[in-house]
Amino acid sequence: MSLIELRARWLKATRSIVPGECSGEHFVIAATFTANPLVPYLGVKCIGDDGSIPHITVAPYDQLFQVCLNWQSMFASHAPTAIVLMWRIEDFLRSELQEFLRGNSDALDRAFDKVEQLRAAILNLRQGFSGAIVVSIPPFPHGPDHDIRAARTGVTAGMFHRRLIDKWIVGINDIAGVSFLDLDSRQRLVGIERSGDARKWYLYRQPFTEEFWHEVAEDLCTTLKRQRSAAKKCLVVDCDNTLWGGIIGEDGLEGIALGEDFPGSVFRDFQQQLLTLRSKGVMLAICSKNNEHDVWDVFDRHDGMVLKREHFVAHRINWHNKGANIENIAKELNIGLDSIVFVDDSPIEIDFVRNTLPMVHCIQVPGDVARFPMSFNSFRLFDREQVSDEDRVRSEMMLQERGRKALGTSLSAEEFTKALQLSVDFFEVKAEHFTRVTQLINKTNQFNLTTKRRTAGEVSNLIDAPGAKMFAWRVADRFGDYGLVGVVILIRTANAIDIDTLLMSCRVLGRGVENAVFAAVAAYARLQNASKLRGQYIPTPKNSLVADLYRDQGFKPLGDGHWESDDLEKFLWPAHITRVTNTSL
Amino acid sequence: MANRLIELFSNVLGVELERLNDETSPTNTPAWDSVSSIMLITEIEALFEVELSTSDIESMSSLGRARAVLQRLGVHEL
């Protein structure tokens, strides 16, 4: 759809809204410049799957501080679900920048002070506001009195900009649950000439072109959606003409392209991209039609290979159809097909997988391979708000899992759980666990009783909420550490403890860990002098696994998915699980 | 005669076609506020494929004057 059509669609959509109807998403945009042209592009992109139209308010011009401090009264009629704050150096720090360029030595410090004041206001907002918060990284300032080409003099707008954004990014990263909208990278990608419109700046204090706003809307919409949806977890790649150029079975080790020269350099760069993704928690897997030993020969003997065998958590190198192979990989890794991305050079394979497994996201290597690394880079669904420790070591954990599987095949179920030597550490959630806990809340599908998604802000507010208690647990066994794998949120009511949220990563299912969790929850309830535990099961297409959990744990049905137990003594810590106690209950 | 310019004003301002004429201006049309001014310029530039100078934009103080500017720029199928 062209930009003009997008804007027309938005006008039409908003005209159909009944005045006074205030529900659903409400995005508030505040900026140090006129930001209204963003609205139609953001609005159209954020129309919900159910056709719901987000409400978008542009706050009065240049009122970032007022919005941070007074959002409740400013938007009393319809509480915001997201607040977006955009600032530019040319507006917010105009006099500081000009003085800096004229050689005033304390201008930079004064700019730092102002940025710190804004950071403090955002921290204040984060503590009171439970929705999503997005702040801009200011774009490079290219005003009439500071030349982008003046790199040789020591005092440049570029230096001012770099120092400022470094400080800004570090400062904002210290506040959990605030995302960035990177106007600087976006301006570089679109190009300074095509991003700015001097006429509109002087006439309306609106600095950007429609093209730029359209791209910003795309970035912002991706960021907002990421708050509530899971990132892709696994990248499945083909080998020939994907990991390297050429066909190993025909061209041989000497004939394939991989290394310092084109086209081998393209595939080397792609492998580097995969290695970076792996360091951020994306699991890598191979699905290719080859003789398996040919492929491993490249891994073991080609000196252009960036990736090693051990970087891959699974592989299907055979002549079966790729749909079945990918399904198999998903099963082995215990992940959903919708968290898999598949890359292949063959339009036939891509088409086949698209048709047989529509939930798998497919990327085809472009015909002109030189475009491949950059176009792959523009795919942002692997982005996570934050990378947790569990993400960084996910691939290692998958290898430990292989050891467990080997043990499992030789023993009975009961012998197996004993032989695993499980231990569980059940503890109260603290600020340092936010990243992982928020991740689990937003991506756990199967072992999740109520599937209530929460933003980082909502999680952080729960910590201090009276009557609410949030616990998490780590699990380890003789093969290694599973990390923080489960969360339970308990709400105190008159004489009972309500289990608002109970979820656990599927990595540890079938080990009896849930029995330990119920024992710990019951112990907490007794400590609180509660006489009952209450829970709820809200069915979704993915959580039938736990449909009978409360029944299995001896709860009595109250109807409508609600369950209750008044015998808190019967929940016993399982004998085969060692209890690690860092926090006593 | 079909009038693309009047349709454009009607769409952006949310005012029925028959209530628009050459005299329509910010002073007699509450919907023509500063935000819709920006939208009008964007849509005029996109629809008629012109780039307006700041003085063109400033002189578009009514629907009729917008028409005059476009005619001066050689846009005749308004």
Account of the 3D structure:
The complex is a heterodimer of chains A (585) and B (78). Chain A is an alpha/beta fold. Chain A folds into three domains: 3-226, SGNH hydrolase (Rossmann fold); 234-377, Rossmann fold, CATH 3.40.50; 411-580, Gcn5-related N-acetyltransferase (GNAT) (Aminopeptidase), CATH 3.40.630. Helix content of chain A is 42%, strand content 18%. An eight-stranded mixed beta sheet of chain A has the order 16-17-15-14-13-12-11-18, with helices on both faces. A five-stranded parallel beta sheet of chain A has the order 2-1-3-4-5, with helices on both faces. A five-stranded parallel beta sheet of chain A has the order 8-7-6-9-10. In chain A, α1 (3-15) packs across α2. Chain B has 78 residues and is mainly α. Chain B has one domain (4-72): Orthogonal Bundle (Non-ribosomal Peptide Synthetase Peptidyl Carrier Protein, Chain A). Chain B is 53% helix and 0% strand. Chain B has four helices and no strands. Chain B has helices at residues 4-13, 34-48, 54-59, 63-72. Chain B is globular. The model of chain B has no long low-confidence stretch (mean pLDDT 92). The interface between A and B is medium-sized, with 17 and 18 residues.
Helix and strand topology:
The complex is a heterodimer of chains A (585) and B (78).
Chain A: H1 3-15, E1 26-31, H2 38-45, E2 55-58, H3 64-74, E3 82-86, H4 89-92, H5 94-101, H6 107-128, E4 132-137, H7 157-173, E5 178-182, H8 183-190, H9 192-195, H10 198-204, H11 210-226, E6 234-237, H12 248-255, H13 264-279, E7 283-288, H14 292-301, E8 312-317, H15 322-333, E9 340-344, H16 347-356, E10 361-364, H17 372-377, H18 389-392, H19 394-410, H20 413-420, E11 422-428, H21 434-443, H22 456-464, E12 468-477, E13 480-492, E14 496-504, H23 513-527, E15 532-536, H24 549-552, E16 556-559, E17 562-565, E18 577-580
Parallel strand pairs in A: 1-2, 1-3, 3-4, 4-5, 6-7, 6-9, 7-8, 9-10, 11-18, 14-15
Antiparallel strand pairs in A: 11-12, 12-13, 13-14, 15-17, 16-17
Helix pairs in contact in A: 1-2, 2-11, 3-6, 5-6, 6-7, 8-11, 12-14, 19-20
Chain B: H1 4-13, H2 34-48, H3 54-59, H4 63-72
Helix pairs in contact in B: 1-2
